[in-house]
Amino acid sequence: MRTPGVGSKTFLKCLDYYTPEQVFSESRATLLKLGLRDNSIDAIKKPDWRTVEQDLAWLEQPDNHILLFLDSDYPAQLKEIPDPPPILFARGDIDLIHFPQIAIVGSRNPSSSGIQIATDFAHSLSTAGFTITSGLALGIDAASHRGALAAHGKTIAVTGTGLDRVYPATHKQLATDIVNNGVLISEFPPGTSAKANHFPRRNRIISGLCIGLLVVEAAKQSGSLITARMALEQNREVFAIPGSIYNPLARGCNALIREGAKLVETTQDILEELAHLFQTPTTQVNTSPISAKSALDPEQQKLLNYIQYSPTSIDRLVTETGFSVENIASHLLMLEIQGYISSMNGGSFTRIK
User: Fold this and answer.
1) Coil, strand or helix: which one is 132?
2) Which one, of 95, 93, 57, 101, lies nearest residue 177 by Cα?
3) How far apart are CA 130 and CA 154, in angstroms?
């Protein structure tokens, strides 16, 4: 793995013919026949033991693990994908990779309603017995991890860096919480920094580990859609939250639904689709992703009824409700505090629940 020019495909091709130990004793001519380049063969003949020793020192630390492709406990789900990682680094409860997982992905810059939906679905699916898998990114990923943790459930974060680093750095505490209540996973060795091409590679692991993948919000050209299409190619179930035609973050989800992803409105939609794969607990589960409403007075309820799930201006609310601007402003403040609506740029509001 530490050999330059050897990616997962070349690594797995070598394993088709030799054990890792045998590769290091083969002749240069034989290694050339395997398709290895001169610089790779030079590194095999004279390994960089310093980096190998660093990896082994990392492994000695508490809760750190390395899984090899030929190990019996390497996740069977992941072996099914076309390009499985030959080595997995992990921090935390490594047994979780064998549990039934739902992956939740979406925009790094979601709407407030998208964050609420991801949090609620992760919470509810955790309560139903699933482990929640995502990518530790900003936005929907972070909301999904936090929703699972809030339910005292388990969550897996697949990263695009070595596990001695956290990207983005603002998620250091979240990563610590996941190590304590789940597991961090990466195919990249310690010391690996974040690079743009690492994240599409990370995404195939997210989709490969799960039995179903939920897309909450995604633009039409986004990494989340790439992950969803990887999941389809890997014969995983794909679910998508529909959205307003005016919301650019809904276009990716709506496109997935047109292509055959299942439209999802509640957790029950997912549980019913996966019932043949996973027996959920018999305990009562709240399958609605929307939190229970607190009591609203009649004027607040009337105003809420006129606020759309797409941006709604105060001028429009004045026209449709007949309330004064001052009255509307007062009610909007209370509705936002209680989590029913969110303020948008330009003075508009959008309904969350």
Assistant:
1) strand
2) 93
3) 8
CA nearest 286: which of 266, 301, 270, 303?
266
Residue linked to tokens 């508009």: 348
Asked whether 227 and 40 are in contact (CB, 8 A), the reply is no
Report the mean per-residue pLDDT for the chain: 89
Provide the residue type at 287 as one letter: T
pTM listed for this prediction:
0.80
Q: Is 343 helix (H, G, I), strand (E, B) or coil?
A: strand
Query: How many helices (H) and strands (E) in the chain?
Result: 16, 11
Burial level of 276, CB count in 10 A (0-12/13-18/19+)? Answer: exposed
Q: Which of 139, 58, 61 is nearest to 106 (CA)?
A: 139
- Reported as a single tens digit per residue, the pLDDT across 82-136 is 889 999 999 999 999 999 999 999 999 998 889 999 999 999 999 999 999 999 9
Contact 67, 90 (CB under 8 A): yes
User: In sequence order, what are the beta bridge partners of 351?
Assistant: 341
How do residues 47-59 score in pLDDT, each as one tens digit?
Answer: 999 999 999 999 9
Comparing C-alpha atoms, which of 210, 211, 205, 215 is closest to residue 274?
211
Beta strands, E only, 172-265: 182-186, 212-215, 237-240, 262-263
Quick one: tokens of 192? Answer: 């690996």
In whole angstroms, what is the distance from residue 209 CA to residue 100 CA? 9
Angstrom distance (rounded) from CA 344 to CA 122? 25
| Token pair for 218 | 């995604």
CA triple 324-329-335, angle to 5 deg: 125
User: The tokens of 308 are what?
Assistant: 């759309």
